[in-house]
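Input for the complex:
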Amino acid sequence: MSEVYAARRARLHDQCTAAGSAAALVSRPANVRYLCGAVPPGAVLLLGPVQDVLVATEVPSAPPLSSGPPRSDEPRLLVTPGADGDPAVAAADLAAADGAESLAVEEHDLTVARHRALGAAARRVRLADLGRAVEQLRLIKDDEEISCMRIAGELADQALGELLESILVGRTERHLALELERRLVDHGADGPAFPTVVAAGPNAGRPGHLPTDRRVEEGDFLTISLGADYRGYRCQVGRTFVIGPSPADWQVELYDAVFAAQRAGREALLPGRAYRDVDRVTRQVLTAAGFGDGLEPCTGHGVGLEIDEDPRLTPSAMGKLDACVPVTVEPGVHLPGRGGVRIDDTLVVRPEADGGPELLTITTKELLAL
Amino acid sequence: MSEVYAARRARLHDQCTAAGSAAALVSRPANVRYLCGAVPPGAVLLLGPVQDVLVATEVPSAPPLSSGPPRSDEPRLLVTPGADGDPAVAAADLAAADGAESLAVEEHDLTVARHRALGAAARRVRLADLGRAVEQLRLIKDDEEISCMRIAGELADQALGELLESILVGRTERHLALELERRLVDHGADGPAFPTVVAAGPNAGRPGHLPTDRRVEEGDFLTISLGADYRGYRCQVGRTFVIGPSPADWQVELYDAVFAAQRAGREALLPGRAYRDVDRVTRQVLTAAGFGDGLEPCTGHGVGLEIDEDPRLTPSAMGKLDACVPVTVEPGVHLPGRGGVRIDDTLVVRPEADGGPELLTITTKELLAL
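Predicted:
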């Protein structure tokens, strides 16, 4: 793997040099991981004029940056213990010592206070903004990344499928969420990709609902949204079910509308399609069905090392989809006091010649009455 | 409860006015919660010249700021949906509209990019630094806060005690951690206070070790550190056990040293004692016993709405303990390749007249061979 990380760092190097910065400091955890692999929490990466250095407050536990003997294309490891020692400050010191005149930092990650500390530590270095350069590199995933996400999707489908075979009525949202997360790990996930959503009755369909002690009851809508983290890569699958022998008419009507909207969004995932178009086609179906009020601002988003990363599928988003960009399509409607429906999938954008979008989360989307 | 929050906001108001800022923007989540109670993720609090406003991207789910009808001493709620809408920017707008000339912000929380967006949104307003003013208010806990932490401690002790009654050999660190977190929630915790640490064999005693697939084996040291979140308030309890009929001599020797160090730290928790003194007495015991190499920079820290908050017990820490300040005492020694010992407790500083430090985590600290 370490060649992959070296190649990613080289691309960033070239961009920085082109932008006039001989050195860059990467502090956002997902960005550091993208460029170095798994590293200790809080570690930062200096792409220096002379050398690349991973600065951490602790020695990486196994696995190191790569298995096998250290390689020339790996960054040097600098460990700076000390309760108040900020690795970013140590990295700025190092950049100055190596004669860097300017250092591009991630202004969307560093706090004002940290940024000031960097400036004070390396007075001779001009601090520039690296912007979201690493996030841009992360947009299009390689085969290795996508295969990790494929496995993450299988793990989430598996955990959800097993839960559906058990008795749900009378159990609390909290317990169902914990059981799902245990099953994810049982099957080999490194952990949940995000806090598992289990929302019953009036909570169903609420975005980002945190599980409560509400018990599942007959007649409820039940929304479950979960994801697995596999080697750092994430996925998201969300489904809504009806509890009891058969759904009420209003439940069927609402479900059909969200299902149609989600399908429209999925089918729009083609290279060259504008982000906002995907959002619009999804939204239009819900609006036409009379559920346009109070829709969430976002109907989907990129996913990878973070559960919510670029691109964002919103009415104001700028840009177009590329092939091999994984995104979620997750429209939802919540009717206050009654509940609602959400359907989330994770897909990879593929050209029609390759069969169109690749669905990573295959749990059925027909309305199940459990 | 809402009177409590109103009183806290009033104290902060006074401090800001004294510091020359008519308005303050609180963005750090734990600080917003301290001043308003449970709020939606990402919500920020504007302490304005005219009004206090809680700005959120979604309507708070139950429970609202307080139960019962809205009160005059509650901040107004402003909901600003929109995928790209930053509540902090909306709050800065509002401060400007209300005629604030300066706005104190949390520079240790806001990123450089967000800070710039605030400045652009409210050009007529001078941005000042609120610093850690709210963190300072949070240092000394009131009875309500301490009773929540007492319950959090009981929940963690209970989950740990139950686990010790089960068979541990052959189970992975990961599964033991998940079982502990399930038990925490079963007993009424809102969740774990931090990612549960289960470290077996050579992993034992490693700070912040994340559970792996390493199985517990005969002869292992086993370090477990967990905490409960109860109504936002947290605690931490950590213990190290030996697996098998009887510990080896080196294990007893190491355990006794860490135990003695941890006791020295606990006994030093008295009002007026310097933070660094508590750290020093703990460290000295380990150094005298020959375990002084590679000690962690921090032997304990404050705890409350965050698991790791002010004060920090380090060699360089400035300041003295006050009564009613909860802290952890958690020395540890890790011998690479062999494992190690950590013992963590959460205590509340109390004067000797009141019986000295109050121990919130009462699981036995004698060396158990399981």
